[in-house]
Structures are given as structure tokens and as C-alpha cells.
Specification:
2 copies of one chain form a homodimer. In chain A, β8, α4 and β9 form a beta-alpha-beta unit. Chain A has 17 helices and 20 strands. Chain A folds into 2 domains: about 250 residues, Nitrilase/N-carbamoyl-D-aminoacid amidohydrolase, CATH 3.60.110.10; about 210 residues, HUPs (Rossmann fold, 3-Layer(aba) Sandwich). In chain A, α5 crosses α6. With about 525 residues, the first copy, chain A, is of the alpha/beta class. The interface between A and B is large, with 85 and 85 residues. Chains A, B: Belongs to the NAD synthetase family. In the C-terminal section; belongs to the NAD synthetase family. Chains A, B: Its EC number is 6.3.5.1. Chains A, B: InterPro entries: C-N_Hydrolase (IPR003010), C-N_Hydrolase_sf (IPR036526), Gln-dep_NAD_synthase (IPR014445), NAD/GMP_synthase (IPR022310), NAD_synthase (IPR003694), Rossmann-like_a/b/a_fold (IPR014729). Chains A, B: This is Glutamine-dependent NAD(+) synthetase.
């Protein structure tokens, strides 16, 4: 039996496009001699569709699309993921539809619903009966949407096919591979996992659909971060790739992260019908990296940088930003912020009085950051650009950023990327030639909102901060567990204290592309009001 | 058997305060002759604690608090809600702990976990075994945390006690009462529901713990939006109030909404250790109402209004705002925004060029709104005020508001309140004397960002808009269903189209006090990227 894996990038609720892609893949698989073609979980609707799953109009459109797809399965079978509404009970399941001879022959429904990260299934789906067997050209195939299989139902099948929506994070793929290999080995049966590819808002699906062999383990996979199509043959329990295998070692962890962020930006723009990105350039490493990623995702001709020096900006900051723009070949403008800043100081003088006005504090720093935000948003409004936010996860965790100032933007590119990863990514961008100015990478990080300011005046240095944040956030360890691992108790306690006060800011920062196990505002869900550390 | 209901306002994770309140109530109940005292669901920890429930430090603190509470139950029994970690499996349940003779005698665990609105239980709790019976002084009592009871277990008990966390919305109480009455009648047994009181960030718990009688239906309840304590006697299956009964008809729907919002503001400030509120006053009805609610919640001495007239503000707007401040007796300042506005126009001139600068569009309106936001945030930073957002749900649904402009603030007071409800609430504020100037209520709503502007230039009038929004959002009806109810097809389609484009703004607006069945960003969860209407 020959089968094809079709790994596609869907758009949520765009039934015309999704259905066309699926039917074209069915036709192409048939033309190439496949007996069966496989699609990912919730392929027909795109996922996660969230509250759209509560709309009867949406569910009717799913039904129509499914019928059209089924009708196209005349001389070939397919298994495709879709929300499935039971016509008698009206209940909605997360289904894998087996289409054969022009109709939906069987519906397998997901049993273990998933509520991790930004995936929310229990509010929308009813738990179904789980894995089930079908037969294609004499091969017995087990279809599942669940992680855990019950042994009895997996007995005596020739192949296990799992439809997935596994979002990318820099730890998830290894866990996924280990799980698949373990299941395959335990059941002594080969296993195929078909994964969605493409970014859906904050979530980035990496594709990398895999085939494992119960004896060898890893066998073959499809591309990362791209649509792909591949043919395999199953004889008895034996698997064979009908096309060249993929080299597994192509990507380093940093390269994967880079590709994920590029896809995240590109799909956010493409799927929303947007084109041009606007970035506030400080000459620092965060905004430089965001500009580099945006150029890769959208083309330098669709990127514009705005340099907004203040009285505290160093000369080299402007030069670094100009060098960056010239290296990548994107347009930039310089808008000094002194005029706006002075106007606010004058407007506020009568309110603050002589005493308050004399004492320069965080207020004046925030005014600078907010004047920049007004400038960026005005250019965005007038010229049709979308502002990309440039703050990172280390700053977000510490509340180091100005709400409605540097924290503005339609989407946060680095909001789930630690500062140490920002450095690694910048060096990766420069792997062949120096595109991000070396000085922007090597200078001490600074917000440049007062004379001589350094991030390390207010925060632990990033080499100390990031590993502790990683243990707190990604590993969910307590202060005492982290101290036991050898970190300084005072530093850990200071970080926990600072982090406990950022909830209200995180509530209003732009949605961030998710690349870690626990992104703020998705994996992490803290009460707005609570007694915290 | 005498029992007491203790309806308390807890603070999430503040174990010292919560434990003290619970133990004092136990002692007071004992002193008044009660055999049993009842507390609400998750009383010990406060709820919803969200990701704090994943912290072992937090769960250890719960254990310690529970032991201390149990030890105080020497001559009296109590039933108290708390997260319960099973010591062998490590799994965490939503538990009702029956404490007697100084220790935890029995743990009843919630079976049907709830993921409605802002309550998220499945990510944190394991589903338990559900209702169970205990015996107190010869009375057989069924304890439950679930809505649905299985008949067999409810057989032959004298009383059903349900611990709850039912947040307020203007439809939920009636549904709750109907459910309780139906269960009580069906099982021919009296029923007690103990509810949490107090606001926890966006969620406002209304208390109103109730006692129903299987024969009469409604029997008695505790106060709305306040802590309360009340004694009852159970003899056989017969219930008796040992204190004066509450008049059920005290509150109109508008009065309840008013009290809910006041409590929402007060607890947000109290529980976060905040004191002073800052409000941008336009002279319009939304900001006037927010000021009125803030004065009631925090005292006029803790409220400050900032009037920020632009070149398009009408003279009467300033006068209305001044009258408002004088009527309530709160402080205000006038900061005209022309200086800031002109500075931005000048800064942006070189970027926009002659052509773009000549064409005045939404950009210039947004600059005005954002200049106001910078002023408000600067005063907030310098003088320690917390900015209250003043936009309403009708505007939010239509995307009628400027991100980082009038959409700033720590918390949105009216973000879940439709404009027509804003009018009703304002008339309620004026029920005894005219506090909100009549002119602010009666004039045509306007953002005053360009000459002669009215909301109705961009939006359907609120009398048409709000009923359609209610059907779309709260009732989750489709366009065709709404048209069938007699609404104009073009208007409905226009509203659906406008609403489908607001997702990205809703992602970054302040958290809103939730008072409807489906608040944005809580009840409503739309994909950031999707093909929408």
C-alpha cells in the first residue's frame, strides 16, 4: 500500500483555500500512485479556531468542505482532520475523517483533549472514543489523534497514523520524537505523525511530520517550517520512503528558532493581508534583530525603520541603526523626539509644580518612550505600516519596558525569546557576513533614557538573569529548588519579587510569537490580583 | 443541627489573611451555637489562582493553612473549599474539606470541572469522584461542588450543601436560582449554596449564598456584594432561619450592576495595595460614570480628574466635566493638549511630506487621543495614581477607540458594559440628585476629535447597535438568526464585519471588570489570525 503525507499551511476559517489545497493534494497523490493520503489534525478548518467553533455558520462551512473533500476521494482514500459535529446530538468532536469511495466512511474522534499552551480544546470539543482501525488495500491501519494508545486496540495493525497539531517550541520536538519512538517500539509497529505547518497568530507549527520504524526508530520526515509532500510504501509492517530521505542534522537550535520567527512574521502578515512592517530602531540589538527577521520574512523593500534619537542617545546608536538599514537595504527615517518631549514637559509643568518638575524620575524616561510610540503609530496610521514590537522575554519578565511606549506593536517578535537567545540569533544572522553591526551586538545593553544608563543598573546581568528565568518559567521551579542548583539566593529572590509585579503589564503587551514551552500570556496565566512574592 | 454560612471575601494566595478570616468565623459560629459552619469553594487559597496552582510552594502553603483551620475545629465542624493535593499521587483536586475533631475527616472532590468565562479548572485540577455524604449531629448531609447530582447518592439525605465560586453577571443569578430550585425539588431535599464574595481582578463574585427549601423554593439568602454570616437550623428535613430573612427585591438589575462595578474597582485597589485613581474626563457620559463609580468605591478624596481639551472640544464639555468634579467633590486639573499635538505634527512633517501632511485623516485624531494618554500616564507615574480606563463594550466591539490612546488604563471599568447600560447606570447615579450633569447624559455621544464629529458618523446609533451586539455576543446568534428576529440585514452584516476586525485591539486593551455572560478577552476568545466576515 502506497501512502502520501501532505503537510500543508492552512488558514483558520478560510474554507475555500483549505479545501482547494486538500483536494489538489489528493489529486496529486493519486497521480503519483498513492492509495491513501494523510493530512494533519483540524486541517479543514485550520487550528486553533477557538470561539469560531461555537458558531453554527462556521460548523456548516466545515460540513460543506468535508463533503466536497470526500467527493474528491474516488480512486484514492484520505484521512483528514476536521471538527466533526454529530448530526443527532449536535456535539462537536475533534475528528479524523476516513474518506473513501466519495464519502466519509468513518470518523475517529480525539479522546484526550489538550489544554496546553495556547491550545484550548475542552471548551470546544467533547471527548470522543479515541483510536480506531481501518483497512486500506489489505493493510490494517490504526488512526489516532491521541498521545496515549491502549494496547488492545493497537494489536495486530500494520501501521499507526497519528494526526497532530504540535506547535513549535525549542523543547517540544525532541519530546515528540521520544514519545513516538517509544509508542512505536512498545507496539512493534511503524508510526506516522502528520503535523500542521505554518503560523497561526502566536502559535508556530513546524511541520516536520515524521515516520518512525519500530526497529530503527527515526526513519524519515518532512520539511521544517514549509509545506511538503512525500510518498511512502507499506508492505506488511515494513516501511519504505519512495523519495530521498531528509538529513536530520540540517538545523541547529538557533537556526530552528530563526526559521520559526521568520515564519511567524510572514504568516502573520500574509494571513492578515498585510504587507509592510515598521520598526523603531534604537541601534540596539533587539530592534536590529527584529529588522533582520522582518527583512527575511517580508523582503527589505517592505520594511521601514524609524530612528528616534533623544538627548540621551549616543552618537554611535544612530550610526549603528543607519549601518543596519544600509546593510539590509531597507528604508529609514530619522525623527528626533526632543520637540515632543519638551512639549509634554511644558504641558505638565502646571500639574507637577516646581517640586515635582525638578525631580526627574521614571516619569521623564517613560515620556520619551511614549513619544516614540506616538510617532511610530502615527506613521503606521498614515502610511499603512504595521508596527513590530521589539522587546524581549527577559525584559518582559522583569517589567523592564514602558507600557504604551516601547511595548507597543501589533505583534511581539521577541516577546518569547530571552536576551541571551537574542545574542545567539544575531550572531546567526551574521554567520556569513556582518549584517547587524558588531558594535550593536557587543555594547552593553541600554535603554538610553537617561545619561549613562545601562540595563544592568536595574536588572541582574543577562548571563545571571536568563538561566534563573528559564528555571522559574520554563521549568516551573521554586526559589529553593533554584538555589539548590547553585544560584545565588538573593538574586533569585530579587528576580522572583520583580517578576511577581509584572502581571498588569503583560496583560496589555502585544501577543508574542510563541517559541518556548511557556510564553507569557499563553503558557503562563497569572491572576491579576493576588498576594505574590 | 444548627449550621452557619460564612460568606467571605478572600484574597488569592494571601494565606495569613484567609486563614485568620476562616478561623474567626469558626470561633464566632461556635460561640453562636452552630454545630457546622460552611465556607465557599476554594476559600483557603482564593480563586481563581490559575498558574499559582502549579507551584509547589503555593500548594504547601495551602496544606499548612488547611491543617491550621482543621485544628481550630474542636467543638464544631466545618466544610471549607481548598485545592487538595493527594499525598500519594501528587494530583490536585478542587476539594471540599470536612473538618471535625481537629482534623480533616473527609475530602469531597469536584467531578465536573468548569472552564466557562474566566474560570479555567481543567488545566489545574484532576476530576474527582463528586458528591459524598457526611453526618453531623445525626443529620445526613450531602456535600458537593458539582452542578449535577446523581440521584442515587442524594437519596435519603436531609440537606444538600453545595460550595460555589459563581461569578456575577447580569444573567447568571437567575439561572443559578433555577438550577438550585430544580435540584432541590427533584430530590425533595433542602439545598444550601455557599458562594464567594468579592472581586478577583476581572471576576466579581456576588455572594448571595442561598438556601432553598424543596417545598417552598426560595427560602433565604445572604447579602449581595458584601461579606455576611447567617445561622440556620435543620430539623429532619425542615429548615429554619435563626436571623431575619433578606428581602429578595432589594436590587434592580441596574443597581446590581452598579454595586458589582463599585466592588470591582474597590477590590482591585484594596487587594493590590493601591489607593488613588486617575481619570481622563472628556465631559462625556462614559468618563463621568467611571468617576462616579470610583468616588463610590474609593472616596472622592482618592479620585482625580484630568480635563484635556483639544481644539475640537466644545466649551460645554469642559463645563460638564468641571460640574461633575464639583458635584462629587473630587480634584481636577485642566491640561490642554494643543502643545503636544502641534509638536507631533511638526516632528512628523518631514516624514509625511507636503501631500500626506495636507490630508488630515484618522492619524491626526489618533495623535490627539495618544497625547492624552501620555499626559495621563505621566501624572500616574509622577504622582502615584492608577489610570482607570473609560471605554465601553459597544465601542470595544466596533473597534471605536485608539490603542495606546483612550484605550489605556490599569483596568477597564466599563469594558463589559454596553453604552445603553452606561445611560441606565448614569440615571441610577442621579436617582436622588443630579450628580452627573444632565447635559453629559443627553448630548449626542462624540469623541470630539474633529469638528462636529458624532459617534453616529461611524457607528450605528446605540439603540440599534446594542441589541444586535447583545444577540451576537451574549446569545451567540448568527447573522441570519438575528435578521429573522427582525433586525435590518445590512446593519447586522455591517456590525459583524466591523466586529471581525477588532481582534488585535482587544488583545491589548486593559482587562475589563466582567459583568456579562461573555466579556471580551475572557468569555470571548477569537483567533488573532483567521478569515473572518
Amino acid at each position: 500500500m502506497n501512502f502520501a503525507i501532505s503537510q500543508l499551511n492552512f488558514k483558520i476559517a478560510d474554507f475555500a483555500v483549505n479545501t482547494r489545497k486538500i483536494i489538489e493534494a489528493i489529486q496529486s497523490a493519486h497521480a503519483q500512485g498513492a492509495d491513501l493520503v494523510l493530512f494533519s489534525e483540524l486541517a479543514v478548518s485550520g487550528a486553533p479556531a477557538l470561539d469560531l467553533l461555537k458558531s453554527s455558520v462556521f460548523l456548516n462551512q466545515v460540513d460543506e468542505a468535508v463533503q466536497e473533500i470526500a467527493r474528491s476521494c474516488k480512486n484514492i482514500d484520505c484521512i483528514v482532520g476536521a471538527p466533526y459535529r454529530d448530526s443527532s446530538s449536535g456535539q462537536v468532536y475533534n475528528g479524523a475523517l476516513f474518506c473513501s469511495q466519495g464519502k466519509v466512511e468513518r470518523v475517529i474522534s480525539k479522546r484526550e483533549l489538550n489544554d496546553q499552551g495556547l491550545i484550548h480544546e475542552t471548551p470546544y470539543f467533547v471527548s470522543g472514543s479515541g483510536a480506531d482501525q481501518i483497512e486500506v488495500k489489505g493493510s490494517r491501519v490504526l488512526i489516532t489523534l491521541d498521545d496515549v494508545l491502549e494496547n488492545e486496540i493497537a494489536d495486530s495493525v500494520d501501521l499507526i497514523i497519528s494526526l497532530r497539531n504540535s506547535p513549535f517550541s525549542y523543547t517540544e520536538y525532541d519530546q515528540r520524537m521520544e514519545r513516538i519512538k517509544a509508542v512505536s517500539q512498545q507496539l512493534a509497529t511503524g508510526m506516522v505523525e502528520v503535523n500542521q505547518v505554518g503560523a497561526q497568530g502566536q502559535l508556530i507549527f513546524d511541520g516536520r511530520s515524521v515516520v518512525v520504524n519500530s526497529t530503527e526508530g527515526y526513519f524519515d520526515k518532512l520539511k521544517a517550517f514549509q509545506e511538503d509532500f512525500k510518498l511512502f510504501r507499506l508492505e506488511g509492517k515494513s516501511l519504505q520512503s519512495l523519495q530521498p530521505k531528509i538529513d536530520t542534522e540540517k538545523y541547529t537550535e538557533t537556526a530552528l528558532l530563526y526559521e520559526a520567527l521568520v515564519l511567524g512574521i510572514r504568516d502573520y502578515f500574509d494571513k492578515n493581508g498585510l504587507k509592510k512592517a515598521l520598526i523603531g530602531l534604537s541601534g540596539g540589538i533587539d530592534s536590529s534583530l527584529v529588522a533582520a527577521l522582518a527583512c527575511e520574512a517580508l523582503g527589505a523593500e517592505n520594511v521601514k525603520g524609524i530612528l528616534m534619537p533623544s538627548m540621551y542617545s549616543t552618537g554611535h546608536s544612530v550610526k549603528d541603526a543607519e549601518d543596519l538599514a544600509n546593510n539590509f537595504g531597507f528604508e529609514y527615517e530619522i525623527v528626533p523626539i526632543k520637540g515632543g518631549y519638551d512639549a509634554f514637559i511644558e504641558m505638565l509643568n502646571p500639574v507637577f509644580g516646581t517640586e515635582d518638575s525638578a525631580e526627574v524620575d521614571l516619569t521623564e524616561q517613560n515620556i520619551q518612550a511614549r513619544v516614540r510610540a506616538v510617532v511610530l503609530m502615527a506613521i503606521s496610521n498614515k502610511q499603512g505600516y504595521v508596527v513590530l514590537n521589539t522587546s524581549n522575554k527577559s525584559e518582559a519578565a522583569m517589567g523592564y519596558g514602558t507600557l504604551y511606549g516601547d511595548l507597543v506593536g501589533a505583534i511581539s517578535v521577541l516577546g518569547d525569546v530571552y536576551k541571551t537567545q537574542v545574542f545567539e540569533l544575531s550572531r546567526y544572522v551574521n554567520r556569513n557576513q556582518q549584517l547587524i553591526p558588531e558594535h550593536a551586538i557587543n555594547k552593553a545593553p541600554s535603554a538610553e533614557l537617561k545619561p549613562g544608563q545601562k540595563d544592568s543598573d536595574s536588572l541582574p546581568v543577562y548571563e545571571i538573569l536568563d538561566p534563573i528565568l528559564y528555571l522559574l518559567i520554563e521549568k516551573n521551579l521554586s526559589t529553593s529548588q533554584i538555589v539548590e542548583l547553585g544560584h545565588d539566593k538573593n538574586e533569585v529572590e530579587r528576580i522572583v519579587r520583580m517578576m511577581s509585579r509584572v502581571g498588569f503589564k503583560l496583560f496589555q503587551t502585544p501577543p508574542a510569537l510563541r517559541v518556548s514551552p511557556r510564553a507569557f500570556g499563553s503558557g503562563l496565566n497569572l491572576p491579576l490580583v493576588a498576594k505574590l512574592a
